[in-house]
């Protein structure tokens, strides 16, 4: 590959190169003060890539993860989603920084009061049980007789503005309904003997209005795919940034996540946005919104009033496009504001890109090892950070804004050949051309932060340093097929 072209393409990795007032490379897990109070709507990772499952290369996979740091044994309630929120995946296919297509998920709790007869024979009382289920759960979506609380969801496609555009329900091709079943989390082998089969039965073919080709959808618990030495990073980067790439422990290895995954025909997602070579470009980001008002009920009842009453317009509280942005780009004082913002208004955050603090911090933490690039403003980062790479994933006439951008016409790399350094290693189907589960966005971002894109060694002395957090995603932990993230860890296993 042409060296100049490679460096240009790599520069879209810069979204993780800046730092606010704290160090925490955990993608977007608990990244802003307010979102820590409402973890059900905390968006953690967004993946968007040309599908690499055999025979599915004509589709794009969108994966939005929520609810970080899930312990597999998180009973008795486990990790339901918020039925008073909307979870959304937004796509800009015209390059104007405004959503053109939105996929919206809304969840409904389904409660059946399971009771047991307790007391003397002939004088028993029916008493509600305190646990999620009272027996084994069958492999099919409808096998819920032993489950007290389950969830269904509706999926809508909205064209135009997310709140005022044309909204249509996506239908379930399995039963013809407008509803889908979310599998119960992986409680353990006594409750669900074969969780992989059970979860696979919750992958649904779906009909999106206006799309000729059926889509696939899955919403449910998965094994966390993001790899990071969280403890060391939080502790002022308490690791050797020049050590082997597998020298540290992945602190998320024993955690689960909640995934919303969609596989959609590429021609159903693309629009007028094209790069200078005439290839289509899609921009994407996720959000979660809750009702403006919440009144805590002093006397929660089982009659539907519950513990709180929610009302008012939906208000965005979480936003995620490129990885690590709010985590390590936006200053602490602006983190909640970023989560509430939209790409079209990203000019207000430009200073965090033109004057990144991560290189300066690394220089302080590792004197003699890390030397920050002496280039201000970082105009090399601004173009790729807020516009995409010319001739690759930058739309002609693009409006400056932050989002993950994908050129779906670049050929897929089979999973066995994927390189976790993406374009940095010559794998053009990887980050920053979209993002796949295997892509090591932390290592890529560290290297770009210290000048990997700058040709002048006097300006960026560490531009070729193999910086790393010492953790990699294990390819064997990922699926080669939709929804790509692995079966979640069980709360308990056979003795």
SSE arrangement:
Elements: H1 3-10, E1 43-50, E2 59-70, E3 85-92, E4 101-111, E5 115-118, E6 125-128, E7 149-159, E8 166-169, E9 171-172, E10 180-182, H2 195-200, E11 204-207, E12 215-223, H3 230-234, E13 256-265, E14 282-296, E15 308-320, H4 325-328, H5 335-339, H6 351-354, H7 358-365, H8 379-387, E16 404-406, H9 441-449
Antiparallel strand pairs: 1-2, 2-13, 3-4, 3-14, 4-7, 5-6, 7-8, 7-10, 9-11, 11-12, 12-13, 14-15, 14-16
Quick gist of this model?
The chain is α+β, with helices and mostly antiparallel strands and 495 residues long.
Structural account:
The chain has 495 residues and is of the alpha+beta class. It has one domain (3-477). 12% of the residues lie in helices and 24% in strands. The chain has 9 helices and 16 strands. The chain has helices at 3-10, 195-200, 230-234, 325-328, 335-339, 351-354, 358-365, 379-387, 441-449; strands at 43-50, 59-70, 85-92, 101-111, 115-118, 125-128, 149-159, 166-169, 171-172, 180-182, 204-207, 215-223, 256-265, 282-296, 308-320, 404-406. The strands form 3 sheets. Strands 3, 4, 7, 8, 10, 14, 15 and 16 form an 8-stranded antiparallel beta sheet that branches. Strand 11 (204-207) and strand 12 form a beta hairpin. It is globular and about 90 Å long. The relative contact order is 0.22. Residues 1-26 have low confidence and may be disordered.
């Amino acid at each position: 590959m042409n060296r100049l072209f490679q460096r240009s393409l790599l520069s879209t990795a810069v979204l993780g190169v800046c730092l606010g007032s704290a160090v925490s490379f955990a993608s977007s897990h608990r990244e802003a003060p307010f979102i820590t109070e409402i973890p059900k709507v905390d968006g953690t990772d967004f993946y968007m890539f040309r599908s690499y499952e055999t025979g599915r290369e004509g589709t794009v996979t969108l994966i939005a993860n929520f609810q970080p740091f899930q312990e597999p044994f998180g009973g008795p309630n486990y990790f339901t989603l918020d039925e008073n929120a909307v979870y959304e995946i937004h796509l800009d296919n015209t390059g104007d920084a405004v959503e053109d297509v939105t996929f919206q998920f809304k969840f409904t709790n389904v409660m059946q009061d399971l009771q047991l007869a307790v007391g003397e024979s002939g004088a028993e009382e029916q008493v509600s049980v305190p646990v999620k289920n009272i027996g084994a759960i069958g492999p099919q979506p409808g096998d819920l007789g032993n489950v007290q609380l389950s969830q269904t969801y509706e999926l809508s496609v909205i064209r135009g503005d997310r709140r005022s555009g044309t909204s249509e329900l996506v239908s379930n091709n399995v039963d013809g309904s407008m509803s889908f079943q979310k599998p119960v989390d992986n409680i353990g082998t006594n409750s669900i003997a074969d969780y992989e089969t059970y979860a696979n039965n919750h992958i649904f073919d779906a009909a999106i209005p206006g799309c000729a080709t059926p889509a696939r959808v899955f919403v449910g618990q998965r094994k966390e795919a993001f790899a990071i030495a969280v403890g060391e990073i939080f502790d002022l980067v308490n690791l050797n940034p020049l050590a082997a790439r597998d020298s540290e422990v992945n602190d998320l290895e024993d955690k689960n996540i909640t995934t919303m995954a969609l596989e959609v025909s590429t021609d159903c997602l693309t629009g007028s946005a094209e790069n200078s070579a005439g290839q289509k470009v899609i921009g994407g980001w996720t959000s979660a919104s809750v009702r403006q008002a919440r009144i805590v009920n002093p006397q929660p009842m089982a009659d539907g009033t519950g513990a709180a009453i929610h009302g008012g317009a939906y208000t965005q509280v979480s936003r995620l496009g490129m990885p690590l942005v709010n985590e390590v780009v936006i200053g602490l004082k602006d983190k909640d504001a970023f989560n509430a913002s939209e790409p079209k208004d990203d000019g207000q955050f430009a200073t965090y890109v033109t004057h990144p603090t991560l290189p300066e911090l690394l220089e302080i933490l590792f004197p003699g090892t890390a030397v920050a690039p002496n280039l201000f403003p970082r105009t090399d980062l601004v173009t790729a950070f807020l516009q995409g790479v010319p001739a690759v994933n930058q739309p002609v006439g693009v409006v400056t804004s932050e989002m993950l951008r994908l050129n779906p016409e670049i050929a897929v790399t089979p999973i066995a050949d994927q390189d976790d350094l993406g374009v940095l290693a010559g794998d053009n189907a990887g980050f920053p051309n979209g993002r796949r589960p295997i892509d090591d966005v932390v290592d890529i971002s560290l290297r770009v932060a210290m000048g990997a894109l700058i040709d002048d060694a006097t300006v960026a002395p560490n531009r070729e340093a193999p910086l790393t957090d010492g953790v990699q995603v294990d390819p064997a932990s990922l699926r080669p097929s939709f929804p790509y993230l692995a079966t979640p860890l069980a709360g308990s296993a056979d003795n």
